[in-house]
Amino acid sequence: MIYLDNAATTFPKPQCVIEEMSRCLKKYCGNPGRSSHSLSIKSAEKIYETRELLADFFDSEAENVVFTYNTTYALNIAIKSLLKYSTHVLISDIEHNSVLRPIHKCSEQKLCSYSIFSTNGTDEQILKSIESNIKHNTSMLVCTHVSNIGERRLPIKKIGQLCKKYNITFIVDGAQSAGVHNISVKKMNIDALCIPGHKGLYGPQGVGVIIFGNDTVGRSVFEGGTGINSLEPNMPEFLPEAYEAGTLSTPSIVGLYESLKWLKSLDTNKVRAHEEDLYDTLYNILHSTEKITVYKMNTYPGNTLSFNINGLSSAYVAAELNKRDICVRSGFHCSPLAHKLLNTGESGAVRIGIGVFNTKNDIYTLCDAIKDISKNRKIRQ
To answer: Are 175 and 148 within 8 A, CB to CB?
Structure first.
């Protein structure tokens, strides 16, 4: 099997992740922060070590690291806890539904209004589009770092500087960039970085993370037990406990700790170079192949590419590739704004997500299969 759906979740996971999660479940998976016995203490220690490692990875402080179930939960918590009511919010034209839907829901509830800025053109043109959409009551900007359907990458450091200038809360969706691109919460003026454990960090599913900037605490979104201040009717007003209601996913967090150590040993820059090299090979082959439309979003390479075979639905192409033991994803990838921008059509597109375990042979085999499907296609009326 050739796995090329890494933009959805990376696979396979490093062996060290599998082994430590199993060891956790067998040896020390107590409820962290809830008891004074050794299993609870050991779980709490491993969770804190993971906070420290994440803080080191993304240039923040351990107490600013909040664990969630996934990036979608992280974004919902960050947006809804930091949103100032009756203000204006900015999002980009390539946002995932994890950003679009909570913002749209808040606007329907009359909690805010929102505008969409353009990501076409150079960094300077993107910044001009943002500035042209800023209103007197703009209080928040939420944007992805890297698109989930192509290689478009936003200049989040420059956007962070702009947000600081206008005193705008800056929330970043790092679902496709964490582990692939270097991100500094401090240097990029990020108020909340929302990331998954199971994508570019090569951890397990079931754990997401918000890394807050210093002194960034909003309203609680979920309430419940935290293991501290149990006699108080309100949630704690300090991080991370303000946002962590209930039992954390200790096995997944432990797995993430191992994947972070593993990824650090590889070097993020080398991982990115490997994936971009494979992307170049893939793009050059498909772009020069007749009857294939490749949706190019930028001039530089990435690790995600979307395409269609002219005359065939994306679902049909993905199903045909699956018959050849090649895993990709078809459809709209929960990103209708980006698909509308690229004009991918009524069936969306086929998405190829490259990961660290992929090889040149994987790319060549994929391209041969795509050419074969195109050659033998049955045009659907």
So the answer is: yes
Distances (CA, A) of 290 to 48, 196, 368, 371: 53, 37, 13, 9
Our CA dihedral for 67, 71, 73, 77, rounded to 10 degrees, sits at 80
User: Token pair for residue 120?
Assistant: 């076409």
Contact between 323 and 273 under an 8 Å Cβ cutoff? The reply is no
The gap between the terminal CA atoms of the chain, to the nearest Å, is: 32
pLDDT in tens, 206-253: 999 999 998 777 888 888 888 778 878 888 888 898 898 889 999 999
Taking a C-beta distance cutoff of 8 angstroms, is the pair 269, 88 a contact?
no
- The pTM of the full predicted model, rounded to 2 decimals, is 0.95
Closest CA to 30 of 20, 39, 21, 19: 39
Residue with tokens 């590889």: 266
Identical fold between 2-10+267-375 and 16-266: no
Element (H, E) at 208: strand 208-212
Residue 166's closest CA among 130, 193, 125?
A: 130
342 vs 296: CA distance, rounded Å: 9
Tokens of 378: 């049955």
How many whole angstroms separate alpha carbon 162 and alpha carbon 10? 33
- Residue-wise pLDDT for 266-317, tens only, equals 999 999 999 999 999 999 999 999 999 999 888 789 999 999 999 999 999 9
Encoding tokens for residue 15?
């062996």
- What is 16-266's CATH number? 3.40.640.10
Task: Fill in the DSSP letter of residue 13.
Answer: P
Q: Could you check whether the bond before residue 240 is cis, i.e. omega within 30 degrees of 0? A: yes
N residues, the chain: 381
- Using CA atoms, how far apart are residues 331 and 348, in angstroms rounded to an integer? 5
Per domain, the residue ranges of the chain are: 2-10+267-375, 16-266
Asked if residue 352 lies in contact with residue 366, where contact means CB atoms within 8 angstroms, the answer is: yes
Asked if 194 and 78 count as a contact pair (C-beta separation under 8 A), the reply is yes
Q: Which CATH class is domain 2-10+267-375?
A: alpha beta
User: What pLDDT, in 10s, does the model give residues 367-379?
Assistant: 999 999 999 875 4
Identify residue 199 by its one-letter amino acid code: K
